[in-house]
Amino acid sequence: MDPGDVATELKEDYLLISSWLIYYSERKRNIDIMRISTQDKRWMEVFELLHHMLGPKKRLLLELRRLEAEQPAARRTRGRPGWMVWVQRHWVEAYAKRYGDSDGECWISDGMVKNMWSEIVARCAILAGKRGLLAGRAS
Fold first, then answer.
1. Which of 12, 15, 77, 101 could disulfide-link 85, Cβ–Cβ 3.0 to 4.6 Å?
2. Considering Cα of 51, then 53, then 57, then 58, what sign does the dihedral take?
3. How much is the mean pLDDT over the chain?
4. Helix 3-29, helix 110-130: angle, nearest 10
5. Nearest CA among 90, 86, 81, 91 for reference residue 118
6. Radius of gyration in angstroms for the set of CA atoms belonging to the chain, rounded to a whole number
7. Any idea what DSSP says for residue 71?
8. CA 106-99-82 angle, 5° bins
9. Cβ distance 127 to 15 under 8 Å?
10. Is the separation of the CB atoms in 85 and 44 below 8 Å?
């Protein structure tokens, strides 16, 4: 397999997993309305398991990331990745509210946001791979 093909496949997997992470709650709400495939049910099981495996800070990041995705396009921050600024701004308030820290002591850096998000996606990729959800995509 060509290294370029592998890189493309990994990027596609990353985007697929990120999409599931961000829109999981919406998809879960729609379960009763629509019929979902066996594969979608297996993805949902992965996210239920992942949620229980994440620590409180990563769960907070995932929650904020999902809330950011629900924002109207006009209110969303632009840039790459634009969601980070929104998450950082709201992290301070949410963290202070949950853990009683003063606003100044709970700032989260760009690097920390990127690292935590990458760790969440990587852990999800491992779980999905173990359940065969990413298998068969390889050529």
1. 77
2. negative
3. 84
4. 90
5. 81
6. 16
7. S
8. 45
9. no
10. no
17 or 36, greater pLDDT: 17
- Rounded to an integer, what distance in angstroms lies between the CA atom of residue 76 and that of residue 132? 35
CA angle 27/33/39 to nearest 5° reads 50
Q: If you average pLDDT over residues 56-61, what whole number do you get?
A: 94
- The one-letter amino acid code at 67 reads L
Structure tokens at 121: 């996606």
In this prediction, residues 5-23 reach a mean pLDDT of: 89
Q: Which tokens hold the place of 5?
A: 């093909």
Instruction: Retrieve residue 30's tokens.
Output: 């729609």
pLDDT for residue 59 is more than 90: yes
> Is the pLDDT reported for residue 107 higher than 50?
yes
